[in-house]
Specification:
Blueprint lengths: L1 H10 L7 H9 L2 H15 L1 H6 L4 H44 L7 H13 L1 H14 L9 H13 L8 H11 L3 H17 L1 H22 L12 H9 L7 H10 L2 H7 L14 H9 L1
Helix pairs in contact: 1-7, 3-5, 5-6, 6-7, 8-11, 9-10, 10-11, 11-12
The chain binds a DNA duplex (14 and 14 nucleotides) through helix 10.
Keywords: DNA-binding, Homeobox, Nucleus, Transcription, Transcription regulation
InterPro entries: HD, Homeobox_CS, Homeodomain-like_sf, KN_HD, PBX_PBC_dom, TALE_homeobox
Main location: nucleus
Length: about 290
DNA sequence: GGAAATGATTGTCT
DNA sequence: AGACAATCATTTCC
């Protein structure tokens, strides 16, 4: 899942970041750093220098050589750090962009993240961690288009609104969300629909009409809405004006007004009491009995 | 600002 | 493993 994945990435950055160098870089201007290096070198070679005090020029050359060597290493390390820091920053930005599909992320938030990374990496990890833990339940509603697609599928497969893995993947692609989100959506939809069918009547009718128009526009000779792929049409038609919340009553009405034909279309044996186990109404029957 | 809607999470069941 | 049910946390609507 995204937050966990992100945390893993943070704790395993692409390149180990040399914290000590970062601290030096920020706290001291370049000149002060060079001075520091000079002093360190003087201290480390102090003993030898005293022992060879009679050969001052040789010692000086040796010192200069060492100094430039260390400077080279230092700058190489500094470059490495900057590169790692930039890589890490772009890495975080990419992850944020990915996450922006799941929850709203403003450009300000991204800027803040970047400034945090450039402060102190250790501190940054802690801040970022808490921020992501806080944000783990933040969400964004699906786009209208995505909801349309999902509802269209749901209401045109009302007899068996259980898309298989293949269909889920296809829907996920179409809607620009994950398969897990598709599963969540159908889980929520089934349960909420079943809990209060009356509330969803209007919506069901809307999508039924959509199916009618799309089907009739596809086949000009179709005079009846009961074409193989228009299951929702019949279902919603018989819901119109129905205020019954009780599933059993609803089922009776469905049987009376043609829901049976939809069940048959889905290769479900006649009579709701022998409907396959994947039918939501069957499950309710079992629970009620 | 509060209610309703909605996506996600968690625990339980089969 | 997948479905359901309850619930949480956020967003949207009035």
């Amino acid at each position: 899942k995204q937050p966990a994945f992100f945390l893993f990435e943070i704790f395993h950055p692409p390149e180990p970041v040399p914290l000590s160098i970062q601290g030096v870089q920020q706290e001291d201007p370049p000149d002060a750093q060079i001075m520091q290096l000079d002093n360190m070198l003087l201290c480390s070679s102090g003993g030898r220098s005293r022992r060879n005090s009679d050969d001052g020029s040789l010692e000086h050359v040796d010192y200069k050589e060492k100094l430039s060597q260390i400077r080279e290493i230092y700058h190489a390390e500094l470059d490495k750090y900057e590169q790692a820091c930039n890589e890490f920053t772009s890495h975080v930005i990419n992850l944020l962009r990915e996450q922006s599909r799941m929850r709203p992320i403003s450009s300000k938030e991204i800027e803040r993240m970047v400034s945090i990374i450039h402060r102190n990496t250790c501190e940054a990890v802690m801040i970022l961690r808490s921020m992501f833990l806080d944000a783990r339940r933040k969400r964004r509603n699906f786009s209208k288009q995505a909801t349309e697609i999902l509802n269209e599928y749901f209401y045109s497969h009302l007899a068996n609104p259980y898309p298989n893995e293949e269909v889920k993947e296809e829907l996920a692609k179409k809607c620009g969300i994950t398969v897990a989100q598709i599963a969540n959506w159908f889980g929520n939809k089934r349960i909420r629909y079943k809990k209060n069918i009356a509330k969803f009547q209007e919506e069901a009718n809307v999508y039924a009409m959509k199916t009618v128009t799309s089907v009739s526009s596809l086949s000009s000779q179709a005079t009846s809405p009961a074409t193989p792929n228009s299951g929702g049409v019949m279902v919603c038609g018989c819901f119109a004006g129905d205020t019954v919340g009780d599933l059993f009553k609803t089922e009776d009405r469905l049987n009376q007004h043609g829901y049976q034909s939809i069940l048959q279309q889905h290769a479900i044996p006649s009579g709701l009491h022998s409907v396959g186990p994947s039918c939501i109404f069957q499950q309710d029957n079992l629970q009620a009995v």
